[in-house]
Predict the 3D structure of the following.
Amino acid sequence: MKTIRWGILGTGSIARKFASDLRFAEGSELVAVGSRGKKSADDFAAEFPVKHCHYSYEELAGDAEVDVIYIATPHNLHYENTLLCLNHNKAVLCEKPFAINSRQTVEMIALAKEKKLFLMEARWTKFLPHFIKMQEMVAAGMLGEIKAVLANFGFKPLPPVNPRLFDPALGGGTIMDIGIYNVFMAMAILGQPDHIDAVMTPASTGVDEQCAILFRYKNGAMAQLFSTFSANLATEVDISGSNGHRIRLTSRFYEPSSTIEYYGGGNAEKQIIEVEKGAGGGYNYEAAHVNECLRNGLTESPVIPFADTLRLMEILDKIRKLAGVKYPADL
Ligand SMILES: NC(=O)c1ccc[n+]([C@@H]2O[C@H](COP(=O)([O-])OP(=O)(O)OC[C@H]3O[C@@H](n4cnc5c(N)ncnc54)[C@H](OP(=O)(O)O)[C@@H]3O)[C@@H](O)[C@H]2O)c1
């Protein structure tokens, strides 16, 4: 099996989780890290030994021993970091949200296509066993026709609060950071909404501290999605269908620790649907998929194709417009 050589761009919280999980994605080697600062790069390399420790993103992008770069910087940098790596002929796995808006998304995809390089949004939940199982249950008609999806995602950040959560210049607000998971869930189950409503409560910086979104569908189905940085919520999803049956993805629905509860309707007892929970924190599944795509010479993921990423970003644009959340990069 060909070893895929990884580089990580950025050394924050998610970069460390991903680095730790790479060892569970067979045939991966963490070869390099790139950071804006010497100290953060050295600290990262002390925790996760790498062959090459780069003190700039540019140097990492130019590392001849790296096959693919995982981008783990704040939202606003995904666009320029992805372009930098693609322009150095590197494959890219880019954190969510893929970009600040659909305009940037279109450019990122166009460059990957032009250069015939692999590019994928790191929407890790799509690869998790409990998510895949839930989709199989829905597709098998266990709930009948889906009528309602209720998703919530909320936490109250503890000090010191990461500036990227509220800074408009870094793409702050709940919609792009956590609301995106609710939106993705609704779209995975019900598809593209026919009508969207969205309202928000602004933080002092102007970005959304809370956001309530309603998706309506021509067949009468609805999805109610709520995200907040003001309160700790259960962070669960309920999916209900025409036969009265319901699936609940328990807290935290976006992670592998979530459990599937199945309520068969009427007086039926709750059933726990067992799903094998593999080793690792869950980021290994998306990494393994990228490895497989690269070994097979693919430039686009069959699980998260470009059209899927673009659709999600277009819906996020619409939600932000309705809710009144604007970033400098939108201008
Ligand atoms: N998939 C998931 O489960 C998941 C979970 C959390 C976050 N994320 C996504 O991952 C991205 C990073 O989130 P995070 O929580 O890891 O953020 P973080 O802890 O703040 O780390 C971000 C890193 O980006 C680099 N950076 C470059 N310019 C920066 C700037 N102006 N301000 C702050 N950092 C800057 C820094 O690394 P250097 O100093 O080394 O360059 C920093 O350590 C976000 O887009 C977020 O949505 C995904």
In short: The pocket of NAP is lined by residues 10-15, 35-37, 40, 72-75, 77, 95-96, 122, 124, 162, 164, 177 (CB under 6 Å). The longest strand covers residues 146-154.
